[in-house]
Structure formats: structure tokens, C-alpha cells
Amino acid sequence: MSPEVTASYAAAGVDIEAGERAVELMKAKVARSRRPEVVDDASGFAGLFDVSALLRFKRPLLATSTDGVGTKVMLAQALGKHDTIGIDLVGMVVDDLVVCGAEPLFMTDYIACGKVVPERIAEIVGGVAEGCRLAGCALVGGETAEHPGAMGPDEYDLAGAGTGVVEAAELLGPDRVRPGDVVLGLASSGVHSNGYSLVRHVIATAGLGLERELPELARTLGEELLEPTRIYSLACLELTRTVEVHAFAHITGGGLAANLARSLPPGADAVLDRSSWTPQPIFEVIAGYGRVPQEEMDRTFNLGVGMCAVVPAGVADVALATLAARGQDAWVLGEIVPGSGEARFRA
Length: 347
Known about the structure:
By secondary structure, this protein is an alpha+beta fold. The chain has helices spanning 16-31, 72-79, 85-97, 118-135, 196-206, 221-225, 233-242, 255-261, 281-290, 294-300, 316-325; strands at residues 38-39, 48-49, 60-68, 103-113, 138-146, 156-167, 182-187, 247-250, 268-272, 305-311, 330-338, 343-345. The chain has two domains: 15-38 and 59-167, CATH 3.30.1330.10; 174-345, PurM-like C-terminal domain (Phosphoribosyl-aminoimidazole Synthetase, Chain A, domain 2). The longest helix is centred in the middle third of the chain and has 18 residues, at 118-135. It holds the Pfam family AIRS_C. Pathway: Purine metabolism; IMP biosynthesis via de novo pathway; 5-amino-1-(5-phospho-D-ribosyl)imidazole from N(2)-formyl-N(1)-(5-phospho-D-ribosyl)glycinamide: step 2/2. GO terms for molecular function: ATP binding; phosphoribosylamine-glycine ligase activity; phosphoribosylformylglycinamidine cyclo-ligase activity.
């Protein structure tokens, strides 16, 4: 071994100073997601949350969820736009929590990248913090890991975990759902964060460029596909405080029928009316340019319905008015009938 050769972390591709600068750049954005229960840890090794706030519960149940954003990150990287992908991450996590009626309390995130570019990392984490603000939860910590050699300099991936709380007596789920209930559909903002492997396949096979302006869309294809996932947690929680809610279903991978079926009891079906809404034009683009059959679209994408709420028929009008007051487009999507635990479209 030559005595002149000196190894270092920096020579191996890890820039500690860049990581420290990224932390400084993101601090102000993270602070905007703060909740009163957050306690500062001077060391910075852990996020602290004052659980004495849970004393108001008779029997608090903690709920937890973890997720990522899939290959949607590849489109963010291709377009050089990194400030909204974190919103997607929060939406995928907190809207799973709220399905059982849980209020999201806090999140942590994890970013792996080939090279720490402080400004880029700050944009990503700024999106996570904005998502937490929209969800009413706090971003209490996270980690950025530099993986030179394992990932390219412009590549990154992100994941997150969230914790929420729900009163045991108010836990929502299939056991509350009854025939005669109605299913409300809550509009999505677009594709959200599922099915992007199929989206990228369609883009590649159809020869579509992300900067292309299509007649079906009011903006470029890339801008449409990067529209962040809608965060429903605050609207859903407001709904539970206003009317009786039996169940929610977060419409993610697997599509509308498969996800809604997870919130149904064995003795009931959800019968949905496909004519009750019109999916956003982006779904027409994917189906048309990719020659994707309806069955495949149904089981891959949300098709314009990002969340469902199951409520008694008698409160449907009040529920819709409550959602409208929060700026959430919603409608009666279907009904609950005796059955075998399936969700299906009306023939």
C-alpha cells in the first residue's frame, strides 16, 4: 500500500459539511409544522412529543403508519422539481392513519441520496414540513443518508413514518358499517402517488415527453403528474366531529374497489355508481395513450376518488356540506347493501 494515499469519508463520496448545511436550510420550514406538544431535544438525536396531551383520552390508542412515494420520485428528479414530493409522502402516511379515526400527531422522514445537495434536500424536507402543516401534525425529526456508489448523484428516495391517536370507543372500521349507509367519494387531486410504474411505462411506450402540452390537459404532462397527493386528514377529522362516521377508506394502490372493500364487514357490499363523477383528464391520457383497459385502470389508480367515507344515509347532506366548507369536493358515490364484503360498480 502506498504511504502517499490518504483515504477519507469525503474521498469516498460522503460530504458531512453539505449535510450540515442542508439541516440549516430546512430548519425554518420544519418549524412551520410545529405543534404545542413538541419538546426540543438539545442533542438533536431524537424527536420528543409531550404525551401528557393524551390525558384527555379515556383509552387512547396509538396508530402508526409508514410509506414512501414510489417511482413518482423519478419524475421529480427528471423535472428538477423537488418541493412537492414531500407533500406526497405525508399524504400517503397520514391519510392511512385517519382511516381508523386517528388524529395524526407527528412524523419522521428518511431520505437516501447519492449526493447531498443542500438546496435540494432542503426543498424535499420543506415539502414534508408543508405536508405536515396541512395535516395538522408535526415533523419532529428525520435522517438524510448519502449513499455514493449505491445511487447516482441526482438520485434519491424518501420514506416516512407517522403516529396518531384515537379514542378506543371512537375507533372506526368495518364493524360499524351497515346496509343502508351511503358511501361518499372525496375527490383526489389527480394520480396521487400510486401507479407511477405504469405511468412511466405509458410515457416511454407512447413517446410522451414530460414537457409536452397535451390538448386534454391545461398544463404540461410533467406538471400534471407531479400534482401533490391531496391530504384529507383535517377534513376527515372535522367530519367525525360533525356527523356520525362509520368508516373511511384511503384509495391507494389497488384502486377504489379493493381499498373500499377493506373497510367493509363480511355481510355487506358497497355498490358504486360510476356515473356519479368524472375522473380528471390525466386518467383519460394514461388510458388513451397507453391503451390501458378499464379493468387495469380500476385496479391501479384512484381515478379521481382519493378517499371514501361511509356514513348513515340520514347525515349525508350535512357531511357533504361539512366537506364543502373545507374546500373538499365530495359527492354520494354509492350505497351499502347486504352482501359478502365486496365493493363493486353498479351494473
